[in-house]
Design a protein that fits this description.
Chain C: Pfam families: PBP_like_2. The complex is a heterotrimer. Chain A is α/β, with parallel strands linked by helices. Helix content of chain A is about 35%, strand content about 25%. Chain A has a single domain, classed as Rossmann fold (3-Layer(aba) Sandwich), CATH 3.40.50.300. By secondary structure, chain C is of the alpha/beta class. Chain C has two domains: about 130 residues, D-Maltodextrin-Binding Protein, domain 2; about 110 residues, 3-Layer(aba) Sandwich (D-Maltodextrin-Binding Protein, domain 2). In chain C, a hairpin with a 2-residue loop joins strand 10 and strand 11. Classes of the chains: A alpha/beta, B mainly alpha, C alpha/beta.
């Protein structure tokens, strides 16, 4: 369709190292002593029961929150990042204006913004809705708009925090396709979900959290076939774990 | 000016006659209050937004002070500006006392706390919602201000209208710093006070009805703009 | 789009501020009393002065106490008030250079038409005040340190009465508002004749007592010290002062009538 569809041949993305990461809120440790390393251009899915600290991990890694313990370290140049939230936060403007706004923040020259925004809308199937107020779009349309916005920022690292938890199957499919597109373009993905089937469809590797601790970080195939911890095994069997 | 026994008849006659004295008073009232609100808004909108975004020691005191100043009696504001602009005061050299300029200054003082305090509240709420997304986009707090003000604009229009309401309704401040000089600093509210003190109550009330109508017109215009925007932007 | 809005707003503001800016006719600021302004005297005589001199007079109508304060701070070019003792003190303190009698009118006693204290039949104003105090009939006092208020307090003193009690109500208001309140509570009130004649909201109030020499109300024009306030328009103020005392000025005052009544009587020497 256009140049944005091409698969980039990316220069390597700096590895992300989480080093003894912890977060305590009002004396309550919500995440403790978490160390891991993300490199390459993989799709890493974060799994775990509710309250395991999945969202918190994403926010700490993205830099929205400062950790109370340990640190987030990029081994090299900090790459361009974007994040898609469970409930998309869209500005009180038209769908198109939401995208041109992100481009303006991004530093795109004024003259190019509309064209790029239009292309992104078309790409995410929102072309007909360009002038609709973003906030009256359906949940699925809003999430696609949020993805289009992230797409325009050309991130090398994309965080997605349960982006499909409130969507119907068709909308879920659109989001998953988008994640795949990002991946093809050479973007490293860190995405949390509580949908095991979705994780099986998308994951290259899995991070399993439980009670604010990292229990497993392994290739997807191994995680799903031979989980190393009893909690992960129970979680995969669909039992309640906490 | 026309005189009738009933305030409504007087008001009607005032409007229908297009009395030049009244017209002058109306124009001056609008000029003074609109200028004051415009200046106050230009200062108070960013100020309120900054207060919503930054945490610093003494912020709580500042917020409470601003909220309290919303209730500043106009006479006190007038007196403060009078002492400031009086020849014997620190800014006496400007020669602003008893001019429309002085009235604008006094009304800015009255309107600014209202707009700043209410802006802080509205922007703070919106910021709570937008914060993560805007930070994710890499915006500094300074750059968030215009975004938040723009997205809060429908609510902020009501805030600015509240400021305009206060400016156009007050009499205490403009009376003291303007002096109610015929043809120079006489506005709707001071004219109403004057007619009341002459015992000409129907004319005073008639002027009051005209003032109410004017404020109503400004509000209706703003409402129309707001509704159009709301329908367009959801 | 946002810049366009901002520009429009800025444009509107500068437009309105330019419009607010003053025209260039020379003018003086005159601090005077509500009684002269409310009666319409200035509307009648200032145009005549402006026509011959080309000078506009901007009147700040306040209580006499406030008028002195405005002049003392250098915010007015000239004074026209009615408190001879205060005016002389103002000159003695060095704030004023010259004081001259301009005109007089008189105070009148107003009250409910039933006249519960029977002051209609009083021989002197002192007697009228005593009767009001004895009857403890409601009396509305300006209570604002104005010229009228000061004159009223001197009369209570002359009558040997300490005005005090439920019946004596200090309002802290100008002449007009005091008359409005008196009408509302059917109280006695002392007013200058000019304000009374021009006053429209009388309800049950009528004029009950007048004509005593002690009710004489002298107005004086005072020039402000050039030494204290060099920035003032002393030349223009002098022209106004001189015109008030001139034949033309005195005639203009004598010609001013409300409802067929002459309200001020010129008496410049």
């Amino acid at each position: 369709m256009n140049d944005m569809l091409q698969v980039h041949t990316p220069a390597s993305i700096a590895p992300l190292e989480l080093d003894g990461l912890g977060f305590t809120h009002r004396g309550q440790p919500l995440l403790s002593d978490l160390s891991l390393r993300l490199d390459g251009c993989r799709r890493t899915l974060v799994l775990g029961p509710n309250g395991a600290g999945k969202s918190l991990l994403m926010r700490l890694a993205h830099g929205l929150l400062p950790p109370t313990h340990g640190r987030v370290r990029w081994q090299g140049e900090v790459p361009r990042q974007a994040m898609v939230f469970q409930r998309p936060v869209l500005l009180k403007r038209s769908a198109l204006a939401n995208l041109t706004y992100a481009l303006a923040v991004h530093g795109t020259p004024r003259l190019r913004r509309r064209t790029l925004a239009r292309q992104a809308l078309e790409r995410f199937g929102l072309g007909a809705l360009a002038h609709r107020p973003a906030r009256v779009l359906s949940g699925g349309e809003q999430q696609r708009l949020a993805l289009a916005r992230a797409w325009l920022l050309e991130p090398r690292m994309l965080f997605l925090d349960e982006p499909t938890s409130a969507l119907d199957p068709a909308a879920i499919k659109a989001v998953e396709d988008a994640v795949t597109d990002f991946h093809w373009r050479g973007t490293r993905i860190l995405m949390s979900t509580h949908d095991l089937h979705q994780a099986r469809r998308l994951a290259d590797e899995v991070i399993f959290l439980c009670g604010g601790r990292l229990l497993e970080h392994s290739p997807a195939e191994r995680f799903f076939t031979a989980p190393a911890t009893p909690q992960a095994a129970a979680f995969l069997r669909g039992e309640l774990v906490w | 000016m026309p005189q009738h026994d009933s305030a409504f008849a007087t008001a009607l006659a005032l409007i229908l006659d297009l009395d030049p004295t009244l017209l002058g008073i109306v124009v001056l009232s609008l000029q003074v209050s609109l200028s004051a609100v415009l200046i106050a808004a230009l200062l108070a909108l960013p100020l309120g937004a900054a207060l919503a975004l930054w945490r610093f020691p003494g912020r709580g005191v500042l917020v409470v002070a601003l909220n309290a100043l919303m209730g500043l009696p106009p006479v006190v504001a007038g007196l403060a500006v009078y002492l400031l602009l009086s020849r014997a005061g620190p800014l006496g050299e400007l020669g602003l006392l008893f001019t429309p300029g002085a009235m604008v200054v006094a009304q800015v003082l009255l309107v600014l706390p209202i707009i700043a305090a209410l802006t802080r509240q509205q922007v703070e709420e919106l910021h709570l919602e937008y914060r993560e997304q805007l930070r994710s986009l890499g915006l500094s707090r300074l750059r968030m201000i215009p975004t938040l003000l723009w997205d809060a604009r429908l609510g902020l229009m009501t805030v600015v209208l509240a400021g305009f309401g206060r400016a156009s309704a007050e009499v205490g401040a403009v009376m003291i710093v303007g002096g109610n000089i015929d043809g120079v600093t006489r506005v709707m509210t001071t004219a109403i006070v004057l007619e009341t003190s002459k015992g000409n109550l129907p004319l005073a009330l008639g002027l009051g009805i005209v003032l109410l109508g004017l404020v109503g017109l400004v509000n209706a215009a703003a409402h129309l703009v707001g509704e159009t925007a709301r329908r367009r932007l959801g | 789009m946002r810049t366009r809005h901002t520009l429009t707003a800025l444009g509107l503001m500068s437009l309105s501020l330019t419009a607010v800016a003053q025209d260039e006719t020379p003018y003086i600021t005159l601090a005077s009393t509500t009684s002269t302004e409310n009666s319409g005297l200035f509307d009648a005589i200032i145009p005549q002065f402006s026509e011959t001199s080309g000078i506009d007079v901007r009147v700040i109508a306040v209580g006499t106490g406030q008028a002195f304060e405005i002049a003392r701070r250098g915010d007015a070019d000239s004074l026209l008030v009615h408190d001879t003792a205060g005016e002389e003190r103002f000159v003695a303190e060095g704030y004023g250079t010259e004081r001259a009698d301009v005109m007089y009118n008189d105070f009148v006693l107003i009250g409910p038409s039933e006249d519960p204290a029977s002051i209609r039949e009083a021989e002197t104003v002192e007697q009228a005040f005593s009767r009001i105090a004895e009857a403890e009939a409601p009396f509305a006092s300006r209570g604002d340190d104005s010229g009228t208020n000061r004159a009223e307090l001197r009369l209570w003193e002359a009558a040997g009465v300490e005005p005090d009690g439920e019946w004596y109500r200090e309002l802290g208001s100008g002449m007009g508002p005091t008359l409005n309140t008196a009408a509302g509570m059917d109280a006695y009130v002392m007013a200058d004749r000019a304000t009374w004649v021009a006053f429209d909201n009388r309800q049950n109030l009528v004029l009950l007592f007048e004509g005593d020499d002690a009710l004489f109300n002298q107005y004086g024009s005072v020039l402000i010290s050039e030494e204290k306030h060099p920035h003032l328009k002393h030349d223009l103020a002098q022209q106004w002062h001189d015109w008030l005392l001139s034949d033309a000025g005195q005639q203009a005052i004598a010609d001013f009538e409300v409802k067929g009544q002459q309200l001020f009587f010129p008496n410049a020497e």
